[in-house]
Specification:
Order of helices and strands: EHEHEHEHEHEHHEHHH
Helix content: 40-55%
Strand content: 5-15%
Number of strands: 7
CATH architecture of the largest domain: Alpha-Beta Complex
Number of helices: 10
Strand order of the largest sheet: 3-2-1-4-6-5-7
CATH class of the largest domain: Alpha Beta
CATH superfamily of the largest domain: Spore Coat Polysaccharide Biosynthesis Protein SpsA, Chain A
Largest sheet: 7 strands, mixed
CATH topology of the largest domain: Spore Coat Polysaccharide Biosynthesis Protein SpsA, Chain A
Distance between the termini: 27 Å
Number of domains: 2
């Protein structure tokens, strides 16, 4: 970025992170110009600590989810005129000392979005179950977004100004991580990964938490993908199911012509498949029309 020094802003979604938020803010301030903390309905001292340390604090009265917090961080970063926005977790998983490495491809004009990958780093301490889940969701995201990534679920990211105004998040929960990449692909943004360290020691990594998180991410990926590509995810299955119902109806018609009998085992599935197929096709057309209209009026 030639000319004036770019304004680098860090955004930290936080929910009940009073034990770690201070260290994260203090370290982060070494590498950025401003720090935004979205206190997502915490009932501890997270917001107060962040404010005392000089962060710009956005307060949610209720817990709205990391996606909603990220959206507000995007809004505030735009308001501040940020040239680069770095997002990272408040629980200490991400090391702020990796920020210079994260923003380097943007400063060199090589990428619009940079992702800190935990799997490219030589220092890895990722629990096996979490690693398996992340890789599954990364593969799903690759299919949808076409980006060749190793860690599509990393929240440690840097965005240039173009990306900041292009991939505005609308998902409320953890699905925001995938939503951003899908929108980036749609706008042909350049996405690059760099190795970053991540720490889980001393943090909550229970099986229940991993499974709950995984279910939310999976459902969000499917929802975002289906909305972004309704003809593909609703229209094609709908057409196949409707075609299957026509085959059954044709078979029933042949039987009726020859025997004057209605075979319940054929007719009922035919009715069910017809209804399901028509519902999916109608949904695809409606969603496609709405999504197209929204995009044309942006």
């Amino acid at each position: 970025m030639p000319g004036k020094k770019p304004l680098i802003v860090a955004g930290i979604p936080a929910y009940n992170e009073e034990k770690t938020i201070a260290k994260v803010i203090v370290l982060t301030k070494r590498y950025v110009d401003k720090v935004i903390v979205c206190d997502d309905g915490s009932d501890d001292l997270t917001g107060e600590i962040a404010k005392e340390l000089g962060a710009i604090v956005i307060r949610h009265e209720n817990n709205m989810g990391v996606g909603a917090a990220t959206a507000d961080i995007f809004d505030k970063a735009r308001e501040l005129g940020a040239d680069i926005l770095v997002t990272l977790d408040a629980d200490g998983q991400h090391d702020p000392r990796d920020i210079p490495r994260l923003i380097e491809p943007i400063l060199k004009g090589e990428a619009d979005i940079v992702i800190g990958s935990r799997f490219l780093s030589e220092e890895k301490e990722v629990p096996k179950l979490r690693e398996f889940g992340v890789k599954v969701f990364t593969k799903m995201t690759q299919v949808i977004s076409k980006y060749d990534l190793t860690d599509a679920q990393s929240g440690f990211r840097a965005f240039n100004k173009r990306a900041l105004y292009t991939v505005y998040p609308t998902e409320k929960g953890f699905g925001v991580i995938t939503e951003i990449l899908i929108k980036a692909a749609r706008s042909n943004l350049r996405v690059k990964e760099v190795p970053t360290t991540i720490r889980y020691k001393g943090l909550e990594t229970s099986t229940k938490g991993v499974l709950s998180h995984g279910m939310e991410v999976a459902l969000s990926i499917l929802k975002v993908a289906s909305i972004e590509h309704p003809l593909k995810y609703y229209g094609i299955p709908g057409a196949i199911i409707f075609l299957a119902s026509l085959i059954l109806w044709f078979k029933q018609l042949q039987i009726f012509t020859q025997t004057r009998q209605v075979v319940v085992q054929i007719t009922l599935p035919a009715i069910a498949l017809t209804l399901i197929g028509l519902i999916l096709l109608t949904t695809a057309i409606i969603l496609y029309t709405i999504v197209t209209a929204i995009r044309e009026h942006r």
